[in-house]
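okkk here we go again. third time trying to get the nicotinamide-adenine-dinucleotide bound version out, last two times i messed up the smiles copy paste (missing a bracket lol). double checked this time i swear
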Amino acid sequence: MRLGIIGAGAVAPLHAHGTAVLDGMELAAVCDLKIEVAAAVAAPWGAAVYTDYRRMLADRAVDAVVINTPHSLHKDMVLAAAAHGVHVLVEKPMATTLADCDAMEAACAEAGVVLVVGMIQHFMAEKLAIRSALETGELGRVLMIHDYRSTDYRPGTRPDWFFDPAISGGGAFINIGAHCLDRSLWLGGAPAVRIAARTLNRFGAPVETDGTMELELANGVPLRITIVSDAPRHIDEILVVCENGTVTADPRTGTFVKIDGHLTQVHARSSGDIQDAFTAQLADFAAAVRGANPSVDAAHARHVVELVLAAYESAGTGTAVELVGTAAVPG
Ligand SMILES: NC(=O)c1ccc[n+]([C@@H]2O[C@H](COP(=O)([O-])OP(=O)(O)OC[C@H]3O[C@@H](n4cnc5c(N)ncnc54)[C@H](O)[C@@H]3O)[C@@H](O)[C@H]2O)c1
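finally!!
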């Protein structure tokens, strides 16, 4: 499979490296508006360099693409890839509107190409260790989840488009909250039926810099997500409270289970965890192109966008938003 990358930003080198090490896959082309940025990602692997993704598609240079660009651009790029019969792995968040999500799914289905959304949390070793701990049954049923992430939404700390709602779709929630919603619903085992949210716009930022989301899942599990900018220390922690104990994970330390006062480390952080997750995600994508079911259904990725938009509505009106709760949660 000849893979192309559109958008050579933060995680493009991780996608590129994963492509290069997987059997049956080669990094054929990298496209970015900035030629030097594309060239820097392409060079180690001898891939072609483009500045116009439509040209890359028209040249028949790739069989599949990773779309790794600003959020509101995802839809047109997915539609263009589908029109050329090219399979797609699009970075999170799937899009900035549900209409765009639906158009992307419809175009790929009609073209007969695979559409996978890059929900990397499902491939992170410390989250998979939570999943395994829950699956042993020793912890019992999930009763409550708290997900707590720090970020930095001070203007100037990241590319300007993140602060333009027309391009980004929002701030800390749609970017960082998308990861929290994804992993919490997955580990909680059900879609959400209710969400209430509060947002803060600090530092004069035009998008939210911090906020809390309180959700109820269709199986009754309550979930609280807190996202804070410029916190005194880095935080990336999910805590799952179960009938017989608790389990928590942080990519900087690992995964820990506590049952009746007894603490066990079930995953220890390794320096290769992040690259391994991106490689595993690509392998999952390649398997989907060969006909397997992907680990993360597009309906789940769409539900994450639905919840971010509902969180913005709730924060705006000051009231909770009820949802139908029928989206599939990946098993
Ligand atoms: N999975 C993860 O952990 C993770 C981490 C970071 C970012 N992301 C996602 O990756 C995507 C990109 O974010 P980023 O942080 O890399 O942003 P970025 O601004 O660093 O990189 C985006 C790149 O896209 C390029 N670009 C913009 N328009 C283009 C066009 N029309 N054609 C070709 N290239 C174009 C820009 O020049 C830029 O180099 C977003 O969806 C973001 O949410 C995911």
